[in-house]
Design a protein that fits this description.
The chain is α+β, with helices and mostly antiparallel strands. It is built from ten helices and twelve strands. A five-stranded antiparallel sheet has the order 2-1-5-4-3, with helices on both faces. A five-stranded mixed sheet has the order 7-9-10-12-11, with helices on one face. The longest helix has 52 residues. The N and C termini lie far apart (89 Å).
Length: 357
């Protein structure tokens, strides 16, 4: 251990150590008078050594340190515990403004116990507390905006659903009123497409507040609804969904839903002109990282060349093609004696599963 030649040497070293501390530091006697102060203390609180040394802490700067919380720390807590860390104090100083400080205090009792000193370290956390308060306020405002957004989205969804129902009803009424069979068929097709959009919107509404949709659950519910509304008892058709697990964005789910709805409805309407016991439609979804493949296949009669030409110029084909382009995907049609398979493939996806149409 280093032996000091004089007490003055020890005090010089102690003062030098204090002055190297980046944060304000005080040494008080047992009457709370200042025995020593660091350079950082003078600089931070803009006080002079002549007006600090030997002065009562509470009297410094015309009483600006007469802080009730500080009195509680020095006069009540320290005598009981001898030490306290992270004691937070807020105070308005006349010259430097409002400060938030974390105080660490230690009571030093000497061998003869006749006297004691208190070491008081002061950490200015004003800036960090201000940032925390601003962050909390920003989070509160963000939550409020998100809540408002959810309310607006719910209102918009209700309005969209009501509007679709109104449009569908008008189309159905018009279809019943017209005398032209061709016009009636067009109106019925338009009615069915509006109902399809309403069905997609209804399923997405069940995922309100989420930015992603579970593909398997979404397609299963969608196809179940299509089956219950489109398939009659005279021609039972099984619709089966085989999908990899995973989630897609709600905007992508809209396109998927509309494509599947259009293709499934077409298969129900045209694939089985003659009832057959094993009639089925398969909807499959495969994924590999960012690539995916969506397929709708059936074991129906397929499509003749004239049917394909007519379908190619139809509204449903145009809708599917527009959605495929929007998804940056490619459509492929396989039409053979085993039925029809329409695949929508995203970019570089290579299927590792061999599906039987």
């Amino acid at each position: 251990m280093f032996n000091f030649q004089t007490t003055e040497h020890a005090q010089t070293l102690a003062q030098a150590i204090m002055n190297t501390l980046p944060e304000p530091f005080l040494v008080l006697d047992d009457q709370f008078r200042v025995l020593a102060a660091s350079v950082s203390f003078y600089r931070t609180f803009e006080v002079d050594p002549e007006q600090t040394m030997g002065c009562l802490l509470y009297a410094l700067g015309d009483g600006q340190w007469d802080i009730p919380a500080l009195r509680e720390l020095l006069e009540t807590i320290i005598p009981e515990r001898a030490a306290m860390d992270g004691f937070e104090v807020e105070h308005d100083f006349p010259r430097i403004g409002r400060k938030t400080m974390l105080l660490n205090a230690r009571q030093v009792v000497y061998e003869d116990r006749s006297k004691s000193t208190i070491l008081l370290a002061i950490r200015d956390v004003t800036v960090s507390r201000t940032i925390e308060r601003e962050k909390d306020e920003l989070q509160r405002q963000t939550q409020e905006l998100l809540l408002q957004k959810d309310v607006l989205l719910q209102e918009m969804e209700h309005r969209v659903a009501n509007s679709l129902q109104i449009i569908a009803s008008i189309l159905l009424i018009k279809a019943r009123a017209v005398s032209s069979e061709e016009t009636r068929e067009h109106l019925n097709d338009a009615h069915q497409r509006v109902m399809s959009v309403a069905e997609v919107q209804r399923h997405l509404h069940a995922s309100a507040g989420l930015n992603t949709v579970d593909v398997r659950s979404y397609l299963t519910k969608l196809c179940g609804s299509l089956a219950s509304s489109m398939i009659g008892e005279s021609q039972p058709i099984e619709i089966k969904v085989i999908a990899d697990s995973g989630a897609i964005g709600s905007d992508q789910a809209v396109s998927f839903g509309l494509i599947v709805t259009e293709l499934v409805i077409n298969a129900i309407k045209y694939a089985f002109p003659v009832p057959r016991a094993d009639a089925h439609i398969d909807v499959t979804y495969e994924t590999n990282d960012l690539d995916w493949k969506l397929t709708v296949s059936d074991n129906g009669v397929g499509q003749t060349a004239s049917d394909a030409k007519a379908a190619g110029s139809g509204l449903g084909t145009a809708i599917v093609q527009a959605l495929v382009s929007q998804l940056e995907a490619v459509k492929e049609i396989v039409n053979d004696g085993d039925g029809m398979k329409i695949s929508i493939t995203r970019a570089t996806f290579t299927s590792c599963v061999s599906m039987v149409a």
